[in-house]
């Protein structure tokens, strides 16, 4: 009996190169796990970070190699492997590139966070690696079951990462909320798979596409219901309105590096699945699902932009801003064209760096307890640590879509795709919300470069609590922002105003290093400082006092987080000025089934 | 073994009772259980309602001549998942007093009811006139036409068509075990720590930990101690492995 | 006398709706999690019913994977609940309410 069964069992060709990025990432996690469990001492944070970065870099290198093989003229081209359950095409390779590079940045941020927390926990890096493999699997999946499994692998890792901070009870509550609503959305998504399976007779995306192209369904109610549920399930995952309600709480409660990673990788995986399922497999039904995505995109854009305006917590603000970004990416999905797919991918690529760069800064500013996230703690950040302030400013400006950053090209691409698909009204809505969004991004930037709150008298506007009031406050300080060179106490500020030229932008940067930044940069910048140095040293002590009053503390940037910030900043600027390579890559990232 | 038994019970069900009756009974059981889960105020009773509903689902599987899945349903769901639920409920301890289900948002319940009813009616209306994919080319082959029956067909599909998802479950288990261990390892129960250093009044204050470098050092030492006495964490990890192994063990049976 | 597919799908939809309803109206996290299990089971019924009518093994394989996923998800979910409880030893199951919404 067993013999006859085995004889008829023809195991498909196991082409492990098709899933090698996933295998490398999971293998890296297993390696860390093995070393940790074999050695008496737990693996150090730095070494687990090193292995994670190494694994992610190897996966990144292989993904690029795979991408070249798929898209180059002499290459092997796109193909399906594992009995058609996975697709190796430009799309999946590019998502693998995006996710692997996100893991590099995330590993660096997490190292800094663990160090600030005084924890030795290589598990955080393992979870990051495995959940990244899930996200890549979602993008490469050519079968709804594989999409579901990838979604779960990714989500389970993110639930645990959200709960990682056991000192703050918000972290646990965020994890609970994420878990319940994530489980809810998974169940909805699964029910959508079941109905789609019933309507088309297969869960294979290629099978669905070919079935729908060969048959005209006279009664397509089941398929429509299935599509609706699939859409709702994935919109939950990417935090598109009106399914976004979990996002602000979860983003706020989770440890900052985990939030950054979550914001990047959950969106990448979710949107990759959305593009793969809807544009590729259900492309022939676009007339039915496009209007739904238009509406969701419009609501998401507006909700994200408007709600971000009234937030007083930077993490919540970034959560709503990421909802706004989700709306932009939905524009590319709704276009349902090759241009739309490549625009969405490009947006995801640059978005992951922008948002992770922002959260890298947020995690440093949050301090060792990772809870100083109110807008007030960003007031005068420039003085305390210009590196942080400039990096965050760059990230926010990029998110606002200012030219010469990657965000500009990303927005341009999705808007072009949307207009190309004749959905001009949605493009107009998107541009309006982009303007609104630019307002709250710049508000934070101005706040960081404004003077710190004076106890009394000097700047009455500063007394207004952060919040909506901070906008006007920051706006009012725009004029004075040019001479914010360190004066914090009343006396100091008066002195500064008195003896400082009104236009004082460059030196302001160097002053900030003395204002609480205890890193190595301080020594490095001492030479450049010139004549004002002595005066600043005098002011230094006083400023520190002021910082303590304001609830801030001396900001020390861990080298790893510094590297993470530098990677994000360089990426954003470099590919903002020279967008060619990325756009070329995105345009070549086509899907196997069209 | 259980699959074998299930086949027999299925045969009995199929030969002695008309399908409609079995379906009606199963549906009644499922809905009764589901109502129990939703309305019972005591979580233990909810868990029992869940068991009832899951048994009903297993009955539906039997009715659909899916004996293996019916057995797995009972073994994994009722046998492992619900037990895990009950374990956690008992571990955390249910309050003696009547549990009051609070409504956190005004008018949330009618809204939820309306939304869910709307969605359910919508799916039913859309699906009622719908025709499932008659004549869709079966990618994995017909279940009945293969040698060895359902179980063999399922096993064969898992090792051919669904080989990649089957291997992906390995990653799923890795991350589940990892997550369970991480979550329960942590700092451990504060009560144990209090017992150790004798400072019973010293509450585990979250805020004080974060202020100075000295207190964070304390915490590091505390974490190191916890790594050594990891007993209760391992307990839950053990539960997790036993749960997650259940399906793979059954799949090995399929292989044979 | 066979039961037509519509009945199975109807039962499945009702079960799914009840799971969703329970999730939305209950505040106890463990009960909410049980409601998710109900929803997954509703999907399982639909999968098996479709697989039977389509004479295709894919639906049953899907149920197989759903069982696996449910087990893994429950482990982590209950792990999070236990972890929260250990941070707040005075809490009981009844206190595990969601923050808001």
Structure overview:
The complex is a heterotrimer of chains A (594), B (256) and C (101). Chain A is mainly α and 594 residues long. In chain A, 72% of the residues lie in helices and 1% in strands. Chain B contains 11 helices and no strands. Chain B has helices at residues 2-16, 19-39, 43-63, 67-92, 108-128, 149-159, 163-185, 190-197, 206-209, 213-228, 231-255. With 101 residues, chain C is mainly α. Chain C has a single domain, classed as Helix Hairpins. Helices cover 76% and strands 0% of the residues of chain C. At the B-C interface, helix 2, helix 3, helix 4, helix 5 and helix 6 of B face helix 1, helix 2 and helix 3 of C.
**And the CATH topology of the domain at 9-95 in chain B?**
Four Helix Bundle (Hemerythrin (Met), subunit A)
Mean pLDDT of chain A: 81
Instruction: Give the low-pLDDT segments of chain A.
Output: 454-552
SSE order of chain B, one letter for each helix or strand: HHHHHHHHHHH
Number of strands of chain A: 2
Helix and strand composition category of chain B: mainly alpha
Elements of chain A, N to C (H/E) = HHHEEHHHHHHHHHHHHHHHHHHHHHH
Give the strand line-up of the largest sheet of chain A: 1-2
Global geometry of chain A: globular
Q: What is the terminal separation of chain A in angstroms?
A: 43 Å
Mean pLDDT of chain B: 66
Report the CATH superfamily of the domain at 9-95 in chain B: NADH-ubiquinone/plastoquinone oxidoreductase chain 6, subunit NuoJ
CATH arch. level architecture of the domain at 9-95 in chain B: Up-down Bundle
- Strand residue percentage of chain A: under 5%
Supply the number of helical segments of chain A. Answer: 25
């Amino acid at each position: 009996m067993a013999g006859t069964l085995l004889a008829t069992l023809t195991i498909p060709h196991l082409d492990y190169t098709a899933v090698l990025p996933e295998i490398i990432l999971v293998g890296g996690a297993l390696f860390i796990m093995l070393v940790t469990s074999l050695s008496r001492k737990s693996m150090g944070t730095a070494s687990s970070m090193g292995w994670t970065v190494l694994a992610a870099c190897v996966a990144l290198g292989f993904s690029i190699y795979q991408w070249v093989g798929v898209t180059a003229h002499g290459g092997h081209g796109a193909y399906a492997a594992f009995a058609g359950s996975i697709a190796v095409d430009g799309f999946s390779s590019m998502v693998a590139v995006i996710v692997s590079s996100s893991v590099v940045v995330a590993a660096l941020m997490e190292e800094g966070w663990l160090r600030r927390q005084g924890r030795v926990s290589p598990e955080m890096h393992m979870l990051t690696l495995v959940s990244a493999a899930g996200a890549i699997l979602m993008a490469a999946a050519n079968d709804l079951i594989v999409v579901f499994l990838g979604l779960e692998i990714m989500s389970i890792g993110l639930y645990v990462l959200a709960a990682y901070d056991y000192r703050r009870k918000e972290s646990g509550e965020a994890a609970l909320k994420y878990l319940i609503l994530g489980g809810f959305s998974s169940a909805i998504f699964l029910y959508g798979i079941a109905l789609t399976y019933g309507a088309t007779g297969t869960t294979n995306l290629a099978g669905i596409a070919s079935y729908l192209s060969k048959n005209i369904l006279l009664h397509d109610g089941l398929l429509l219901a299935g599509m609706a549920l699939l859409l709702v399930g994935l919109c939950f995952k990417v935090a598109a309105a009106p399914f976004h309600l979990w996002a602000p709480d979860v983003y706020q409660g989770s440890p900052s590096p985990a939030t950054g990673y979550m914001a990047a990788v959950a969106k990448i995986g979710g949107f990759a699945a959305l593009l793969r399922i809807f544009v590729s497999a259900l492309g022939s039904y676009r007339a039915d699902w496009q209007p739904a995505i238009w509406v969701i995109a419009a609501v998401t854009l507006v909700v994200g932009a408007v709600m971000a305006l009234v937030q007083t917590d930077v993490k919540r603000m970034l959560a709503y801003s990421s909802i706004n970004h989700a709306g932009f990416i939905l524009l590319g999905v709704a276009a349902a064209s090759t241009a739309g797919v490549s625009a969405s991918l490009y947006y995801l690529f640059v978005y992951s760096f922008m948002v992770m760069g922002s959260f890298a800064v947020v995690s440093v500013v949050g301090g060792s307890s990772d809870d100083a996230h109110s807008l007030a703690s960003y007031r005068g950040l420039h003085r305390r640590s210009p590196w942080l302030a400039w990096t965050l400013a760059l990230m926010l400006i990029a998110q606002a879509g200012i030219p010469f950053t990657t965000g500009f090209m990303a927005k341009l691409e999705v808007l072009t795709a949307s207009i190309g698909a004749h959905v001009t009204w949605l493009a107009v809505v998107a541009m309006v919300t982009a303007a609104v969004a630019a307002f709250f991004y710049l508000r934070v930037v101005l706040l960081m470069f404004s003077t710190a709150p004076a106890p009394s008298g000097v700047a009455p506007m500063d007394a207004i609590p952060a919040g909506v009031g901070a906008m006007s406050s920051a706006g009012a300080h725009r004029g004075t922002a040019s001479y914010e060179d360190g004066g914090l106490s009343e006396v100091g500020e008066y002195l500064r105003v008195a003896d400082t030229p009104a236009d004082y932008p460059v030196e302001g940067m160097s002053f900030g290093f003395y204002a609480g930044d205890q890193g190595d940069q301080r020594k490095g910048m001492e030479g450049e400082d010139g004549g004002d140095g002595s005066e600043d040293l005098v002011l230094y002590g006083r400023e520190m006092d002021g910082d303590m009053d304001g609830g801030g503390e001396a900001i020390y940037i861990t080298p790893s987080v510094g590297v993470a910030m530098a990677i994000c900043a360089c990426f954003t600027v470099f590919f903002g000025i020279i967008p060619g390579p990325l756009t070329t890559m995105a345009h070549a990232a086509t899907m196997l089934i069209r | 073994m259980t699959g074998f038994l299930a086949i027999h019970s299925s045969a009995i069900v199929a030969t002695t009772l008309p399908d409609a009756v079995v379906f009606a009974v199963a549906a009644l059981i499922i809905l009764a259980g589901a109502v129990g889960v939703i309305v019972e105020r005591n979580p233990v009773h909810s868990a029992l309602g869940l068991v009832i509903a899951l048994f009903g689902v297993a009955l539906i599987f039997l009715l659909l001549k899916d004996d293996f899945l019916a057995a797995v349903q009972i073994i994994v769901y009722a046998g492992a998942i619900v037990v895990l639920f009950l374990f956690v409920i008992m571990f955390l301890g249910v309050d003696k007093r009547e549990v009051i289900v609070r409504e956190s948002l005004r008018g949330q319940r009618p809204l939820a009811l309306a939304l869910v009813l709307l969605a359910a009616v919508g799916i039913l209306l859309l699906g009622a006139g719908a025709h499932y994919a008659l004549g869709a080319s079966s990618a994995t082959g017909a279940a009945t036409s293969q040698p060895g029956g359902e179980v063999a067909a399922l096993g064969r599909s898992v090792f051919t068509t669904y080989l990649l998802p089957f291997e992906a479950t390995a990653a799923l288990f890795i991350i589940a075990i990892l997550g369970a261990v991480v979550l329960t390892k942590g700092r451990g129960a504060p009560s144990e720590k209090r017992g150790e250093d004798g400072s019973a009044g010293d509450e585990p204050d979250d805020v004080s930990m974060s202020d100075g470098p000295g207190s964070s050092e304390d915490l590091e030492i505390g974490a190191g101690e916890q790594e050594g006495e990891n007993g209760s964490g391992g307990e839950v990890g053990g539960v997790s492995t036993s749960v997650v192994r259940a399906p793979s063990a059954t799949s090995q049976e399929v292989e044979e | 006398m066979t039961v037509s597919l519509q009945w199975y799908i109807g039962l499945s939809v009702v079960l799914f709706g009840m799971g969703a309803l329970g999730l939305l109206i209950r505040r106890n996290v463990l009960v909410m999690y049980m409601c998710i299990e109900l929803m997954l089971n509703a999907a399982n019924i639909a999968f098996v019913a479709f697989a039977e009518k389509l004479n295709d093994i894919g639906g049953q394989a899907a149920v197989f994977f759903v069982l696996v996923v449910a087990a893994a998800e429950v482990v982590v979910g209950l792990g999070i609940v236990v972890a929260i409880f250990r941070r707040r030893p005075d809490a009981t199951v009844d206190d595990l309410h969601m923050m808001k919404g």
